[in-house]
Write a structure and sequence with these properties.
This protein is an alpha/beta fold. Helix content is 54%, strand content 7%. It has 17 helices and six strands. Helix 15 (384-393) links the parallel strand 3 (368-374) and strand 4 (400-402). Helix 3 crosses helix 8 and helix 3 packs antiparallel against helix 9. The radius of gyration is 24 Å and the shape is elongated. The termini are far apart.
Amino acid sequence: MGILLVAAFLGGVLTIASPCVLMVLPIVLSTSNTGGRMRPLGIVLGFAVSFTAFTLAFAGALQALALPASWLRTFTVVALAVFGLALLVPAVGRVFERALSPVARLANTNTRRSGFGGGLLIGSGLGLLWTPCAGPIMAATIALAATAGISPEGVAISLAYTLGAGIPMLLIAYGSRSFAARAKRAGRNTGVLQRVFGALTLVACVAILFGVDIKIQSYVQSNLPSGWSQFLAVFDNQPVVQSELDVLTKKNMIQASTQPTSVPSLTGAQPVTQPTSQPVMAEPTMAPEPTAPPTAIPAPKPLIALEDRGPAPELTGLTHWLNSKPTTLKELRGKVVIVNFWTFGCYNCRNTMPYVRALYDKYKDQGLEILGIHTPEFAYEKVLDNVREGAKDQGVIWPVALDPDFKTWSAYSNRYWPAFYFIDANGHLRYTHFGEGNYDKNELVVRQLLSEANSAQK
């Protein structure tokens, strides 16, 4: 357990280098530069506790939380936007303080007060808004909470991860306060700095409210060096961490009296490591064309060696379908199927979409079907209308099924967003891939499976 806590904490620290903090940092800076000297500490602690509470409460399948959490998220964004406007326009700030005097007294800017209580309040809102680029450790924690209930280990891991993410923010916040203090002692007008922070906060809140933050994160990610996502998940993907996650999963499932579904080994005997990420490109570079044209797909020899891992687990626990009527793997026999676990808020999932879409467009008329199993990570990703809008924005035109209770996720013993399970025309699992990258090999797998299906029909 100690290994998981350390890895979760270090993984959280590395999130400061991910696009997922772009919208949170301006808010942390602006709210930390007002109030007492303890306010930044209050913000980080409130941030860690609220993120853990909201994330695990939702993942624990508290059905009533989904829609109210969406309302609360909107309310929090608006409240922080008003805070930013108050910094940008001091007159608005004075009106705001008079109108909300109880809250203003809790989070006032009088430096004689510690500011800790106001920081807790602000941090609690940030914890609700934050959607981190979660790696396998947090993915497994959320899935366990959904399937086996909230556990002390899950709470500890989530807190360790969020505190790790909060430490760099805390250092940045106190560094910013120190800079502002030096500027004030030097006789410079610190009101300008305050208005700049207010403007940044307002822009960040508007971006979050209208979903522009997702587009910004995707743009930044597409311009990061290849392998950046792998670097951010370096601690999650250590073999010893994967082994500890297996132990934790088995322990919690046994305690919940729900033994894991007996399925074939989906990941092989060795722990899975995250592949090297590739940047998103407008025109994905797919695998080189084989000698024969794709319409013929003859297979005198295998394009790639694939093992047979036995019958793929059937889909289960799905609640709604988009772009298709409900279907099963049995009904899709004769087709090559890719079961893709994703969620529309996951930035790694978004990065893979141009490649998945190119693969689908190229081979859908030759017998390929993709099933997008939407397993939500956070509360707002559970709302059907949000999923529908997210799928439309990302150009998802293949069938999508909602897996809100992690039933199909558990049947596949999955641990990743995104994850790809390649199933042949006989319904057998033949290949798996987790995370971004590997696009050329994924296409070769599809071509091989289509080739086998075509040969069997002759």
